[in-house]
Amino acid sequence: MIDPIKPPRRKNPLLRTRLPASPPRPRSRTSHGFTRAAAEGRFMLQRCEACGAFAYPAREACPSCLSSALAFADAPRGGTLLAETTARVPSDVYFRERAPWRIGLVKMDCGPTIVAHLHADCAEDAPVRMSFQLDKSGQAVAFARPEGETPNMADDRQWREMTADPKFRRVLVTNGRSVIGQEAVVALKAAGAKTVFVGVAEPWRPFAGEDLLRRQEGVEVVALDAADEKSAADLAADIGGKVDILVNTTEYVRAGGLLDRKGTSIARDEIDQAYLGFINLAQAFGPAMRMRGADGVNNSVAWVNILSVYALANWPAFGAYSASQAACLSLSHCLRAELRPGGIKLMNLFTGPVDTEWFQTVPPPKVAPRAIAQAIVSGLKGGLEEMYVGDVAEEIRQRLAANPKALERELDK
Amino acid sequence: MQSKNLLELAGAISSGAVRVVDLTFTLSPDFPVIVLPPEFGQAAPVRIQEISRYDGRGPAWYWNNVTFGEHTGTHFDAPIHWFTGKDLPNNAVDTMPAKDMIAPACVIDCSAEAAHDPDFVLTVPIVEAWESKHGRIPARQWVLLRTDWSKKGWRDYSNLRDDGAHTPGPNPAVIKWLVEERGIIGFGTETIGTDAGQAGHFEPPYPAHHFLHGAGRYGLQCLCNLDQLPATGAVIVASPLKIQNGSGSPLRVIALVGSN
């Protein structure tokens, strides 16, 4: 059983902040099948298309029948812990700093045996539930947890290294004027965030939900216009060293593509808000977050973007907006790489049309802002990198994987 | 006028005998802009982006790229801004006569009335009462409406409610009268527009824009420090940026005030 983690004390200013170290990074190209699974919270193993056997670790031919048709497939998570050991003085810097570190051998019900990081409540000969998690170097590792829930399960020290749980952390929600932003604040507070800073641009402009936002315990409304370079820099000067999770809730949705719009002023606003706003936030908050990746219980852990799934495939009815989202998606991959040395996760959450004012005339299904807020929390708790929220987003993803050209034609209607 | 008189003026400015009052708000990203329904095109807010600041991007110099809409901050409205002035000659900031950029001002102090009524409107009788005290408003002078609105915090300054902005301004009759009967060169306010916050419901809507620009006159808004001006006799210098076919521009507005 695990003792609950305690709220972190204030830092001792005489001590140097420990810099982040990364666990070993090299992987084979085939092994990145696990990376994809871990990014999406799936459990996938290679499975032989000829004989049906599951294989692990990643390889080029089936160990049973030598077939080379070894595609990654969703696999059952159940297994049994055969043996466990504790590494007390590892040679790797990352693990040495975190020793003692428990690992074990898990015999999967579906066949293979996997070396995995262990949750503290895993016991030998007991059933475990296996997952792939992204570690601090952004690579997939196998992680075994007890089959059922145990007390304070998420507080496990090794598990917390793999995730970005909001508990006791300080979160910046960048735009509190939107319903999504307000729902995110509520969900993150409910998930145990110590403080939620919430940005409000143009505070002279009243907005719906403002009173509730200002009344919540542990919520600090701060001036932030992400699209304004100085505003982002000024806020970072104040709280940049206290942002453990940044949730970018920038939202600027306008219908229309190219020919039925006149001029570039709306497109400019879209780029200003979504793309340049993203850059301003990244430049203001990214460096301190990357530096604080190993800063104790409330270390800096994650950056969250909420993107339209039409970043992946242009929806001409919202064509210019789709393009601005595509730009942000591309930029997010750059930021992910740049945050990686700090062990900071970058999670992109893709949604279809949201049930908000600017998608008013779009027929259902639409994603409820609350569902997005809940997905943010569950994604952080699971340490994910990619999430598809709602039926539309999931469907677009599948259709894109199946036939991008067909999807392009189908979105043109 | 002889050039020695001009030099005398310059000397008086330099010595402080003629006071120079800055009527301009600092152009900054957090200054409120006009709010239109979101489906309309919006004024770009002020953005200031560093090019370099004595750093790797330019080791010895500091400078910025600046973007803004024509109607942000303390700004000038040219006749071409409104449909009523669209066909007038020389109706844009680049073609307007340069001599119109310097003119005296009459300052009508309605700060007491505006203090307890955000929807205060200037009327003909109020101006007539002012004239009985200070004399008839001469032609080609600015009329500046002092409300002390510029002293408010930004939220009260824009004063947006669910039925629109509530800020003072002129009623249709007075602005038509000032233009036609007094021949003013323009009308200036401390608020975000030359019109009242609720002027969209006036007849005609936005009467200050309608009548001023229809007659080739100008607007000044987001002015401050009007409380430092005398009721008459101050000279306003308001020269907008020379933007090609521009409908207006942020500008530095200064007033010259004599010692009497």
Q: What's the topology here?
A:
The complex is a heterodimer of chains A (413) and B (260).
Chain A: H1 32-40, E1 44-48, E2 54-55, E3 70-74, E4 78-87, H2 93-98, E5 101-108, E6 113-118, E7 127-134, E8 140-146, H3 157-162, E9 170-173, H4 179-190, E10 195-200, H5 210-215, E11 219-223, H6 229-239, E12 245-248, H7 265-291, E13 302-308, H8 319-339, E14 345-351, H9 369-382, E15 386-389, H10 391-402, H11 404-411
Parallel strand pairs in A: 6-8, 9-10, 9-12, 10-11, 12-13, 13-14, 14-15
Antiparallel strand pairs in A: 1-2, 1-3, 4-5, 4-7, 5-6, 7-8
Helix pairs in contact in A: 4-9, 6-7, 7-8, 10-11
Chain B: H1 3-15, E1 19-22, E2 47-55, E3 58-67, E4 75-77, E5 102-109, H2 111-116, E6 121-122, H3 124-134, E7 142-146, H4 154-158, E8 160-161, E9 164-165, E10 169-170, H5 172-180, E11 186-189, H6 207-214, E12 218-221, E13 234-238, E14 248-250, E15 253-257
Helix pairs in contact in B: 5-6
Summary of the model, kept short:
The complex is a heterodimer of chains A (413) and B (260). Chain A has 413 residues and is α/β, with parallel strands linked by helices. Chain A is built from 11 helices and 15 strands.
Report on the structure:
The complex is a heterodimer of chains A (about 425) and B (about 260). Chain A is α/β, with parallel strands linked by helices and about 425 residues long. Chain A has eleven helices and 15 strands. Chain A has helices spanning about 30-40, 95-100, 155-160, 180-190, 210-215, 230-240, 265-290, 320-340, 370-380, 390-400, 405-410; strands at about 45-50, 55, 70-75, 80-85, 100-110, 115-120, 125-135, 140-145, 170-175, 195-200, 220-225, 245-250, 300-310, 345-350, 385-390. The radius of gyration of chain A is 22 Å and the shape is globular. The N and C termini of chain A lie far apart (about 55 Å). Chain B starts with a helix and ends with a strand. In chain B, the strands form four sheets. Chain B has a nine-stranded mixed β-sheet, covered by helices on one side. A two-stranded antiparallel ribbon of chain B has the order 2-3. In chain B, strands 6-10 form a two-stranded parallel sheet. Helices cover about 20% and strands about 25% of the residues of chain B. Chain B is of the alpha/beta class and about 260 residues long. The interface between A and B is medium-sized, with 17 and 19 residues.
